[in-house]
Amino acid sequence: MPFFCYFREQFYPLDTPILQSNDLGLLRGYGLFDYFRTYNGIPFRFEDYWARFTNSAASLGLEVPLSEVGVRSILQRLYDLSEEREVAYRLLLTGGYAPDGLSVSQPNFIIRTEALPVDNPEGRKKGIKVIPYEYVRDLPYVKSTGYVHLIKMRTELKQESAADLLFYKNGLVSELTRSNIFIVRSGILITPSKDALRGITRKVVMEKAVGRYPVEERDITLAEVLAADEVFTTSTTKWVMPVTMVGDTKIGSGLPGPVTAELLAALENEFVAYGRSEIGSRKSAG
Ligand SMILES: *Cc1c(COP(=O)(O)O)cnc(C)c1O
User: Fold this and answer.
1) What SUPFAM superfamilies does the record point to (predicted)?
2) Which of 115, 144, 246, 258 has a CA-to-CA distance to 280 between 20 and 30 Å?
3) Is the CB of 143 under 6 A from ligand 1?
């Protein structure tokens, strides 16, 4: 249970205040992050998350102060300190301290272990409701720390018994606030080609679809979503989550569909098997 974070060569209990208030992440929202977790005690697809994180950092002109190897050893140490079987990790990179409130000199890089996200088995069984929301993220390939719209809309989401927002702009959908979207139409899997984060779960699902369903990456209109046979969303925390209501419109039969269920099962199998075949893999995960 003891979760720690790493910052400038030190490890701290998670509740330690470590940042000054002139950090550009706080002052200007200049920051990015990544979020992943272990399966069988091993960070799932770390190389993919690391590639996305370093690309995001490069897009914002921020230098990541550690190498992949250095970060891997910190992840191991944080895992050991946690004494948990499975943990979630957050990499957080901000513009750093700026006495003038604008200039980047030394980015701040924090690595945190956290408890696993709260699961939503009910949602996976019945599907979730999302509300269309006219917005497209800027710098959509950067996992930035800006989630203003989600947090601002939390009360309304609760009132509508909705789980999330579905971003669309000029008639085209892009993603949910923290997850990607797929639709199923006549046995074809379709996901937006642009304006959405390159989700690692999206990538794994597309791999799992090979040999089962054709996949198209292209523009999707909101009207197509409403008329789809099935809709689902993917993320590290949601896995494959059926979407059965979009606003007041029921999707398909209103129940999670067979393609969604098959891809969810394929993904779950991948998690269960993860790292199991590696020779000399890390110490028993319990
Ligand atoms: C994190 C995130 C996703 C999903 O990415 P995963 O790598 O599958 O977790 C999609 N869209 C946004 C905006 C995100 O922040």
Assistant:
1) D-aminoacid aminotransferase-like PLP-dependent enzymes
2) 115
3) yes
CATH for 121-271 is: 3.20.10.10
- Ligand 1 centroid vs 185 CA: distance in angstroms? 23
279 burial class (0-12, 13-18, 19+ CB within 10 angstroms)? exposed
pTM of the predicted structure, to 2 decimals: 0.95
Candidates 3.30.1490.110, 3.30.470.10, 2.170.150.20, 2.120.10.30; CATH matching 4-114 = 3.30.470.10
Mutate which of 34, 37, 180, 240 for ligand 1? The one with the most ligand atoms within 8 Å of its CB, which is 180
Is 70 exceeded by the pLDDT of residue 283? no
Q: How far apart (Å, rounded) are the C-alpha atoms in residues 139 and 162?
A: 26
Phi, psi angles (nearest 5°) of residue 74 = -70, -40
Probe target for ligand 1 pocket from 139, 197, 237, with the most ligand atoms within 8 Å of CB? 197
What pLDDT does 52 receive? 98
Quick: pLDDT tens for 72-97. Answer: 999 999 999 999 999 999 999 999 99
- Residue range 187-214, pLDDT digits in tens: 999 999 999 999 999 999 999 999 999 9
In order of 10, 12, 47, 90, 158, the CA distances from 65 in angstroms are 14, 18, 17, 16, 40
The preferred substitution site among 47, 50, 175 for testing ligand 1, maximizing ligand atoms within 8 Å of CB, is 175
| Residue keyed to tokens 């789980």 | 163
Distance between CA atoms of 145 and 102, rounded to whole angstroms?
A: 17
The domain limits of the chain are 4-114, 121-271
